[in-house]
């Protein structure tokens, strides 16, 4: 997740909830001035305590997503079940996409 994406999600959550910066500060248990600075993009890491608290307030998952092509676990699982044919490739892709709705 990028800083811009985080700020867009946080701002959208605040607008949808009707929460002011002061409300958010109380709910996230950080100062209003810190909320303001974060909303202006003044933070370096998603791991900082204040950013984590705001992410929790807005139910934003800030964990880095893995590139599936770099996942040894995923690639070895696909290799173990794929017979190498185009037909099987299409079927496995369809099956994996169907799993998206389960999470």
Listing every helix as H and every strand as E from the N terminus to the C terminus, the arrangement reads HHHHHH
Q: Could you say which structural class the secondary elements and strand pairing correspond to? A: mainly alpha
The total of beta strands comes to 0
What's the CATH class of the largest domain, please?
Mainly Alpha
Low-confidence stretches: none
Number of helices: 6
- Report the principal-axis shape: elongated
* Mean pLDDT over the residues: 91
Cα-to-Cα separation, first versus last residue: 19 Å
Tell me the strand percentage band. under 5%
Could you please say which CATH topology of the largest domain applies here? Answer: 434 Repressor (Amino-terminal Domain)
Task: State the share of residues found in helices, binned by percent.
Answer: 55-70%
Number of domains: 2
Work out the radius of gyration: 20 Å
Largest sheet: none
CATH architecture of the largest domain: Orthogonal Bundle
Protein described:
There is one protein chain. The chain is elongated. The chain starts with a helix and ends with a helix. It has two domains: 55 residues, 434 Repressor (Amino-terminal Domain), CATH 1.10.260; 35 residues, no CATH class. With 103 residues, it is mainly α. The model has no long low-confidence stretch (mean pLDDT 91). Helix 2 packs across helix 4.
Chart the SSEs and their pairings.
Layout: H1 3-17, H2 21-28, H3 32-39, H4 49-57, H5 72-81, H6 86-99
Helix pairs in contact: 2-3, 2-4
Brief summary:
The chain has 103 residues and is an all-alpha fold.
List keywords for this structure.
mainly alpha; 434 Repressor (Amino-terminal Domain); 2 domains; 6 helices
């Amino acid at each position: 997740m990028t800083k811009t994406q985080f700020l867009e999600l946080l701002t959208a959550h605040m607008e949808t909830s009707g929460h002011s910066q002061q409300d958010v500060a109380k709910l996230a248990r950080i100062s209003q001035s810190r909320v303001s600075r974060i909303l202006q993009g003044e933070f370096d890491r998603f791991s900082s305590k204040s950013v984590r608290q705001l992410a929790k307030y807005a139910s934003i998952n800030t964990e880095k997503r893995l590139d599936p092509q770099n996942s040894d676990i995923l690639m070895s699982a696909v290799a173990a079940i794929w017979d190498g044919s185009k037909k099987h490739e299409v079927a496995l892709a369809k099956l994996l996409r169907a799993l998206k709705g389960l999470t």
